[in-house]
Design brief:
- With 252 residues, the chain is an alpha/beta fold.
- Helix content is 33%, strand content 19%.
- The chain contains nine helices and eleven strands.
- It has a five-stranded parallel sheet with strand order 2-1-6-5-7. It has a two-stranded antiparallel ribbon with strand order 3-4.
- The two termini are 44 Å apart.
- Bound molecules: adenine.
- The site of adenine has 12 residues, from strand 5.
- The site of adenine (ADE) has 12 residues, from strand 5.
- InterPro entries: Alpha/beta_knot_MTases, tRNA_m1G_MeTrfase_C_sf, tRNA_m1G_MeTrfase_TrmD, tRNA_m1G_MTases_N, tRNA_MeTrfase_TRMD/TRM10.
- Its EC number is 2.1.1.228.
Amino acid sequence: MRVDIISIFPDYFGPLELSLIGKARQTGRLDVAVHDLRTWTSDVHRTVDDTPYGGGPGMVMRPEPWGQALDAVGPGTLVVPSPVGKPFTQADAHELASLDRLIFACGRYEGIDQRVIDDAADRMPVREVSLGDYVLFGGEVAVIVIMEAIVRLLPGVLGNADSLTEESHAAGLLEAPVYTKPASWRSRDVPEILRSGDHGRIARWRRDQSLLRTASRRPDMMSVYPVDDLDKADRKTLTEGGFQITPPSVAK
Ligand code: ADE
């Protein structure tokens, strides 16, 4: 996979040299190029922003440098992190991980002139994505987050591929709590069942924990969980946990 990142702060992307992303780059599984947007400015001050048409606070990123930058590095699937984007999900991470060429455009200030996005969309797929309902200074940190979510899905990057099928969000539920040695720490014991060696009971316990965690912490996820995927034991767990099963949602 080839990834081009365009930003006015290329130094933000040092972390992409570390850990498993760094390793994926070293082994050639991933090719990342970070570009300074100011490369495509033509004035002495290397200006990338200007005041918004229609008035209002802050500055907007000018279209010309962005247009030239995207002409130079494109085409590819353009990902623009933005608080006005569609919520980025694990399903998006899977879709993006299946592509060969990604381009990330990091906006700053009040955002990028909309014509940049509209013009790019005539030539390449464009996705505006949001990490959540809060506002960051710019898209740089969001790109690092999205890259982590994508790169760990690339074949061969994670040592144990089972981690991907069993993790939170893979099956529409949050994962159960996890424990390691020692069995007792600060008078807190690892649940006995996990030390029992009884794989059937352990699987049931984990499933129960997943259901209860998801129903209490993420009713939004539980409300879209297919009711047909809840077996008799699942229903019992949820009902005894105080959750109502009201197709297709589980309410408290
Ligand atoms: N840029 C600024 N805020 C953002 C957010 N919440 N998600 C993605 N990109 C952003």
